[in-house]
Amino acid sequence: MPKEPPFSQAPEPFLQAARALFETHACVSAVANRHIESQGLTPAQFDVLATLGDTPGMTCKQLGQGTLITKGTLTGVLDRLEAKGLIRREHGSCDSRQIFVSLTPAGEKVFNETFQPHIDYLAQFWDRMPPERQQQLAELLQELQSAFRCPPQQA
Predict the structure, then answer these.
(1) How crowded is residue 109: how many other Cβ atoms within 10 Å of its Cβ?
(2) Is the pLDDT confidence value at 114 over 80?
(3) The pTM is what?
């Protein structure tokens, strides 16, 4: 039986790009998450604080759309942040089913102490790539994301 070529040598050109994308995602996530955790937050908690920071707050629906957290995970993250005293949840004034989430003063303090330092930490890695290449990468990734958001019709 013939041996299959290694993944990186497979004939489909997209497989090499896919592998590079997946490996890069894992590497970037590991580095970023380690730094966030050194700040005493989970990546999901940081995502919520970063999304709420410098805003008057937002609905749970808006927060779900603005973060990289699934709806099922978001509730638990909000519960833990509320228990730490970093966010508050209030029912909407027009619609009591709507929940409005905002940072408490303690949450704003944590946001101010962690957000910019994390951006500065990540910048030291991104600065190794010229801004034009970063822009090119962003455009290519957006193109790829669009392709997967509108998959081809199945026969």
Answers:
(1) 12
(2) yes
(3) 0.84
Domains of the chain: which residue ranges? 39-120
pLDDT at 130 over 70: yes
Residue 87's DSSP bridge partners are 103
Strand order in the sheet with 99-103: 58-59, 99-103, 87-91
The b/e string for 53-64 (b: 16+ C-beta within 10 A; e otherwise) is: beeeebebeebb
Report domain 39-120's class: mainly alpha
Residue with tokens 């299959």: 4
Extract the tokens encoding 118.
């994390």
pLDDT tens across 50-97, in order?
A: 999 999 999 999 999 999 898 889 999 999 999 999 999 998 777 778
